[in-house]
């Protein structure tokens, strides 16, 4: 009754579509306009908040205690040449700083020129840059503690354009353009090379690269679809039509993305080629069935209704199981993975609606007007009726004959050696799950982007010159920031960590500024410290002190993200915490270790235990969904087992291809379930259809492989070609994800034709025997009861 109700509903929908075809196309066009408007609201996202949820305790500490109060970020202008201790060069730097002083969002600029003027003022009372190179050289060489970091050697100087850590992406871009303009205005001597770099330029460049590569990915995915449709879908008219239909669904998805507020990140941008690969299957299924109905039905109106009535529910069930696999992505604590799941879920729904409404409507209209073509009528008079159809069907059977025979032989072989096949598949699965634990995790954003990106090359060059800039940030809450015991503890603890921990290279805090103004020592009274605080410029003091109750201690850890990875940073953080227990802060003082790198520790949990939990949740959801639909434990379990085996194989593939887990590859389990389960479900549906018609398990699986095996291969090929666009992405993270995904889809097809047949025959035969034995026992009991 339930099946009848669903088919009855879709039959009514079929009549509605048939009777309102032009209205549907008009509404579809209006939705394109609405979607285009919504797409304008899409924002790029590449910051920390795309990796770590804002409700995470680690992010809360980072955001409230550090980012909003202390954090600054800098655009770095690096000048390199033969001799940088040069009066003409310093005057150019001074002109550049003057140009930037009125720029909105710039807190301050720090350069050798401004420091030279400060030292010269202390020495001569003149706040100007000296006119001779000798004077410049004497000032720099005589004050290494001041100039050591910004004049690292005789050939480089660094100029920092400092902005607040919470500066928006748009404001960062404006300040970057202002900095580049100021470089032009300053008229640096021609013998010097000027490089504008730092994290803000890197992020701006990465967002631009993401935006530009999106069009390339979609274009390549579309091109690959054209190629595969030309070869596997040429037995129908208008064989390329599924592509514009699915692209229409993509347009609607872009619109929904803008209205809902889903940001475009490195992960979410990969959703669209995936949607083309998955969504085009829906358009193909409706297109194929409608062509079949148009050829065999006397009534063209009835052909539309029958297509929607029969194919609509079947594709909807497949979509539902795919969606359940994707739903598990929402449980990830990584926001960009959650957005990835939302996009995939919205996208498959949009592609389904586009296929059932626009796809079917367009084909029926094409068919209607092609019949009115006068050339076609003349051709029909010349050729015997039905001749073209007969030739086409014979050609199609000839082409499919080899594939069908091959699939039947494969089925025979796998069932003959069922124990061996299932045993090897299971062992490979277990082996893959075991080595999967050894697959490393990568969260360094710089490894995710094109390695030849100019902004990344400049950033790496700066790192080579001045060393790494990764930090551990210690927020120290105190009763009084002028407490000498607190400052002395900061001094001792900083010295201990720098000397005793090889990955901590230097420390910065308010303490060196205090000692500098007190003959190299910390005063013994709060009053003296308060007097020194009054002398320190606010711009310097604000970096390390907030009000009367908060201080900041920074530990420079070099290139820790690249050298020791996030796992190493987590270990280093734990060591610092242990050191604080051994060398405790004064009573009434609390210390919180935070910072951008510490927050990424949260990602480690999400990409280890989090991805495992995500995969198992997907398994449970799909299993429950299948049981609700079929109310049969065998039908619920059989499609899941091959996909679980593929998940294990996938771990082995990643290990042997030496591909690391990233926020993208962490989603593979859910993707395999969502995409691959469709093949097993289609095989199972046809298997039980043949059994219901009276076939034995062996006959049923033979007919299943022969009748829909070729269609499933064609469907899998379209999906593989959709994912293939990811492989050529300039972003290594997306490219590696594409490689593994293509391999996984191929393995899902392999499991469908190698693991599924012996599995379903073994389990179904076992259940039939058990039912037969139970029925025999019941019959004996009845006979014994009758005898009594």
From TrEMBL:
One of its GO terms (biological process) is protein transport. Pfam families: MMPL. One of its GO terms (cellular component) is plasma membrane. It is found in: Membrane. SUPFAM superfamilies: Multidrug efflux transporter AcrB transmembrane domain. The chain crosses the membrane at residues 214-233, 240-260, 266-284, 314-337, 343-366, 415-435, 612-630, 637-657, 663-682, 708-731, 737-763. Keywords: Cell membrane, Membrane, Protein transport, Translocation, Transmembrane, Transmembrane helix, Transport. It is a multi-pass membrane protein. This is Transporter, RND superfamily. It comes from Methanosarcina mazei (strain ATCC BAA-159 / DSM 3647 / Goe1 / Go1 / JCM 11833 / OCM 88).
